[in-house]
TrEMBL record:
Source organism: Peribacillus simplex
Pathway the protein contributes to: Amino-acid biosynthesis; L-lysine biosynthesis via DAP pathway; (S)-tetrahydrodipicolinate from L-aspartate: step 4/4
Record-given protein name: 4-hydroxy-tetrahydrodipicolinate reductase
Segments forming domain Dihydrodipicolinate reductase N-terminal: 4-128
Function description: Catalyzes the conversion of 4-hydroxy-tetrahydrodipicolinate (HTPA) to tetrahydrodipicolinate.
Broad class of where this protein is predominantly found: cytoplasm
Active site feature: H155 (proton donor/acceptor), K159 (proton donor)
Binding-site list for NADP(+): R37
Length: 266
């Protein structure tokens, strides 16, 4: 069976670095190229941290896709660049696996119709950690019985978007099974703006940013005399890689856009 040829965008980033190593060590995958804005024309092995891993480096994504035959693009960059990379990949018939977070609902709708038009698979996963997917599913189950919910997401202080993609996705999954409910006292007033966090369908999301953290989330469900907490912690970026592998394998069999690994994990 031929190997899945993969291009990784953002290889020097914390996630991209792990993804390059995952592709390199996985038997059925081949690292076809990387997209990096600072090292055009070099070999990946010449870049610090990638000794022994050979792959051409391109800064221009169109040049990369025209020169290299590939099946999948893994994007781990920033929202604006990630959106451009994902559209470009679809236009070249390359299946995107996107871990980059911060896409808007409009971005997702645009990519959904482009994916349909091209008839190839695309996976956008705000969280690749299998434990985090289970946290979201368990939270959705709990929300049927506990409609009062607060989400506290905690990440490292270099994260650009807030709330996290995982927190937004958790809120969306809960909103799908919970009747809209404005939580807290009807007359509550913020004496400092933002004290109650972001409001999604009446539930609140709080974003914590601190050095030392990686990716953590608690979903708190309160009811008369009881509190249920569903919590997940990613302690390092390796925790995301089994989900990246699953997504690359799965996107090869899809012809639609899938948003969230919970839709491919039974
Ligand atoms: P990071 O360490 O800051 O890496 C970002 C990478 O993107 C760097 O290699 C950076 O290159 C590159 N980049 C930035 N702007 C670019 C541009 N204009 N053109 C080309 N490349 C550009 O971030 P990270 O922690 O790896 O996270 C990357 C993304 O994954 C973020 O959106 C984050 O929220 C998301 N994430 C997802 C998951 C998940 O499970 N789905 C988990 C963790 C993080 P330079 O060094 O040149 O800036």
């Amino acid at each position: 069976m031929s190997k899945v040829k993969v291009i990784v965008a953002g290889p020097r980033g914390r996630m991209g670095n792990e993804a390059v190593k995952l592709v390199h060590r996985t038997e059925g995958f081949e690292l076809a190229a990387v997209i990096d804005r600072k090292h055009n024309g070099e070999s990946l092995s010449a870049i610090e941290g990638f000794q022994g891993i050979e792959a051409p480096v391109f800064s221009d994504i169109n040049e990369c896709f025209s020169s290299i035959k590939a099946d999948v693009l893994i994007d781990l960059t920033t929202p604006e660049v990630g959106m451009f990379h994902t559209e470009t990949a679809l236009n070249h018939g390359i299946r995107p696996v996107v871990g980059t977070t911060g896409f808007t609902k409009e971005d997702l709708a645009k990519l959904d119709s482009l994916t349909k038009e091209k008839g190839i698979g695309c996976i956008i996963a705000p969280n690749f950690a299998i434990g985090a997917i289970l946290m979201m599913k368990f939270s959705q189950m709990a929300a049927k019985y506990f409609p009062d919910v607060e989400i506290i997401e905690m990440h490292h202080d270099q994260k650009l978007d807030a709330p996290s993609g995982t927190a937004s996705k958790t809120a969306d999954m809960i909103a799908a099974v919970r009747e809209t409910k404005q939580q807290g006292h009807p007359n509550e007033k913020e004496t400092i703006q933002g004290a109650r966090g972001a409001n999604v369908d009446g539930m609140h999301i709080h974003s914590v940013r601190l050095p030392g953290l990686v990716a953590h989330q608690q979903v708190l469900f309160g009811s008369d005399g009881e509190l249920l907490t569903v919590r997940h912690d990613s302690f390092n970026r390796a925790s995301f890689m089994s989900g990246v592998k699953l997504a690359v394998d799965t996107v090869m069999k899809l012809d639609v856009l899938v948003y969230g690994l919970e839709n491919i994990i039974e």
